[in-house]
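Example 3.
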Amino acid sequence: MVRLKCIINYDGSQFSGFQIQPNKRTIHGSLEKALLKMHKGEHVRIIASGRTDTGVHAKGQVIHFDSSYDIPVLNWKQALNTLLPDDLYIQEVKVVPDIFHARFDVMEKEYRYYVWNEKEADVFKRNYFYQFPYSLNIEAMQEACRYLVGTHDFTTFSSAKATTKGSKERTIYKASCTERGSEIEFIFRGSGFLYNMVRIIIGVLLDIGQERRKPSDIENLLENKDRRLVGETVPPQGLYLWEVKYRED
Amino acid sequence: MVRLKCIINYDGSQFSGFQIQPNKRTIHGSLEKALLKMHKGEHVRIIASGRTDTGVHAKGQVIHFDSSYDIPVLNWKQALNTLLPDDLYIQEVKVVPDIFHARFDVMEKEYRYYVWNEKEADVFKRNYFYQFPYSLNIEAMQEACRYLVGTHDFTTFSSAKATTKGSKERTIYKASCTERGSEIEFIFRGSGFLYNMVRIIIGVLLDIGQERRKPSDIENLLENKDRRLVGETVPPQGLYLWEVKYRED
C-alpha cells in the first residue's frame, strides 16, 4: 500500500462543484471513477485539501489516496490523465509518507479572483472572470487589502450557511489587488479560509473600489463580526484555488 | 421593413457549429430562436458571411436580416442579447441599405489560429488553443507564410469534402506567425477562404516548423493542386473568424 499526493487542475465550468453527488458530474466523482477503473472495480477513496463550489476553478488543488496498485510513480500521472475528462488534469503525482493528510496538514492556501472590468460582455471570459462594468478606484482597493493582512476573526466575511463550528480566526499573509489593462487580479494567501470568505471579501473590495465604502471600513467590519453588514457574495467563475502548501513543501 | 447588419461573437465550444440542424444547439438556430421571440412567432431568416464548424470561434462574424419590428437601432443590441445564451453575443447592430448582403458582399476575411506550444495540457486552454507539444522553428514558419501571400489556386489546401464548384483561386493579403511565450498566433487575411483552408495550411506550417518540410515546399504544393499531398486538418478549437470586411467599411 502506498500513499499518493496529487496536484490537480480543473476548469470548474462544467462541474457541479467538487463534492460527490448522485447523478451529478463532480470533480470528486470523476476522480474516484478514474481510480475505480484503474483498480479494476476496487473503490479508492480520495481526500482533498478542501471543497470548491460549482463554477470555481483550481490551478493547484491537492488530493491524497492510498493504493495497492503497484506501478512506477512516473506512470501514475499518465495512467490517470488518460482516464480523466479533459477539463480535469493531474499535474503531479508523488509518493508521500503514510501520515500525510491532504486536508489536516494544510499550512497555507492561495486563492486568486479575476475581475474583467469592462462594460461589454466577452464570450471568451464569461466562465473565467467576473465581468464588472463600473469604474473602480484600484488604490482604494489596495489600501483595503492591507487591513485584511494579519490574524483576524473573519465571521463578517463567512457564509451564514457555514457549518464550521470551531474558531473563525484565520491569518492572512498576503492580500493584493493588481490592475492589468481591463483585468484585475486579487491574490489572497492565508492559513485557511472560511466558506465563501474570498467571494464575500471581493464583494466588499468592489464596494470600496466604487467608493461606496472607505478602505478603513474593513477594520470595523472585522470587529463587528456580523455577516449582515456586508453585501452579496460575488459569482464563482472568477475564483481559482491557486496553491495549497504543506509542511513538507 | 429595415435591413440590419450585426457583428457577433461566439465561443464555439458548446455549439454544434453554425449551420441549423434539427435537435442540435447551433449558432444559426440560437439566433433565429431569439429573433422568433422578438417578432412574436414570425420567422426571421438570417444570412451569415459564411459558416463555421463545430468548435470554431468568432470574434467578428457578420449576419444580416430584415425586420418589420420598429424599435430604435440602439435598442436592438440589448434586446437581442437579453434573449441570447451567454456564449453568443451581439457586439454591434446597424441599419444597412436593402442591397447589403452579408455573404455576397464580403471583401475580405480575417482568420486567426492559436497554438499552445507546451508539453503539459492546460485545462483552461483546451477549448481555445490547439495544444502542440513538439518544438517549432518559428522563423521557418514565418518564411513559409510569405509564400502564401498573393493570388493562388488553393486546391491543395481545401477539404476534399468541399462542395465549392467555382474557382479555387483566392488572394491572401496577409499571412503571419508570431510567438508570444508558449502561445503562437497565426493571422490570415484574404479575399476569401475555401472549406478547411486555414486548418489545412496550419497543419503544413506545423510540419515546416518541425522541419519535416522546407518553407519553399509551399510553392510546389500550391502548383500541384492535390489535397493528398498534405497532412491532417488541425483541430477546430484554435480557429477564430476574426473579422469580415465589406465595401461600406
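Chain B has two domains: 2-96, 107-246. The mean pLDDT of chain B is 95.
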